[in-house]
Write a structure and sequence with these properties.
The chain is mainly alpha-helical. Helix 4 packs parallel to helix 7 and helix 6 crosses helix 7. The protein has 10 helices and no strands. It is flat.
Length: about 290
């Protein structure tokens, strides 16, 4: 394909992904205040950790005494609803735009690499969802610590933008961070990172994970920091063990017997060819003058 054909294909796939995100964002906009298929509304589900706090730790603003967040500007409610709907739309449309990305890069991959791409896309989506679920569970503990420290002196009246901004950032940090072990496995499979190197770097990487959790976790509360650091440490150890198994498998396999036709042979695996034996020089022909 020429460059123009590549750009045309990319434009088409981007339009399909954008159309899917618009549809799911519209669905999220409706889901924000209305439950779908018997499920609670998205707004009720997201503000659940805040409303689960004791009334002594949060201000009751609504005249009916129900749990409500505060809006301080005329367009706060609409923009917040749109922001939450867009985030939900990106998550719900994840299979579509991930497939479009995979379909765009597939023609440049070997058959084995295509199978790996499907597995990694599926695992990447599952890891992101697992990180987001853990962040939602941790959020209740984090709010319990942050909003009840001085509840005997003051109460907190959170605005919707502050609360949902904190929640979305926490979900994104946990979800994206959970992709780090998958990246390590990918680098090991392509031969960039070996198990021996990962084993030597294990302590340093664990220390780096705790530093990362301390700096990038929104709120800086000990519960979310420890939860993120410990979860990433477990996933890192799992990735290291997968690298160990993969390196052992490569060492047992060896040679060219298992190399597919569309793969390049590893350096040094080809058999050496002996140098050709020297060709004997023909003897010089002597001509007898008497015979002529």
């Amino acid at each position: 394909m020429s460059l123009v054909e590549h750009l045309t294909e990319l434009r088409g796939r981007l339009l399909i992904a954008a159309f899917a995100v618009v549809l799911t964002t519209t669905l999220g906009f409706l889901w924000y205040t209305h439950g779908l298929f018997g499920t609670p509304s998205l707004g009720d589900w997201l503000r659940g950790p805040y409303c689960a706090l004791p009334e002594s730790a949060r201000a009751t603003i609504a005249p009916d005494g129900q749990c409500r967040l505060l809006a301080t500007a005329p367009f706060d409610q609409f923009m917040l609803r749109l922001k939450v709907a867009l985030t939900a739309g990106l998550v719900m449309a994840c299979p579509v735009w991930l497939y479009q990305l995979w379909a765009f890069i597939t023609p440049g991959l070997y058959n084995k690499e295509r199978r790996f791409a499907v597995v990694f896309v599926a695992l990447g989506a599952l890891l992101f969802i697992a990180g987001a679920v853990l962040a939602y569970v941790v959020l209740s503990k984090a709010l319990q610590f942050l909003l009840t420290v001085g509840s005997d002196v003051q109460v907190t009246a959170l605005s919707g933008d502050q609360y949902f901004g904190f929640l979305i950032n926490l979900l994104l940090v946990f979800g994206i961070s959970f992709e780090f072990p998958l990246l390590i496995v990918m680098l090991n499979l392509v031969g960039v990172l070996s198990y021996q190197r990962l084993k030597a770097w294990r302590r340093g990487m664990i220390m780096g994970l705790f530093v990362f959790a301390a700096f990038f976790t929104p709120g800086s509360d000990p519960f979310s920091m420890l939860a993120l650091a410990l979860a990433l440490t477990l996933l890192l150890e799992l990735a290291i063990q997968i690298a160990r198994f993969n390196d052992k498998r490569k060492a047992r396999r060896g040679g060219l017997a298992e190399v597919a036709d569309d793969e390049a042979a590893p350096i040094g695996a080809a058999e050496t060819i002996e140098a050709p034996s020297p060709v004997p020089t023909p003897s010089r022909l002597v001509v007898d003058d008497d015979a002529t």
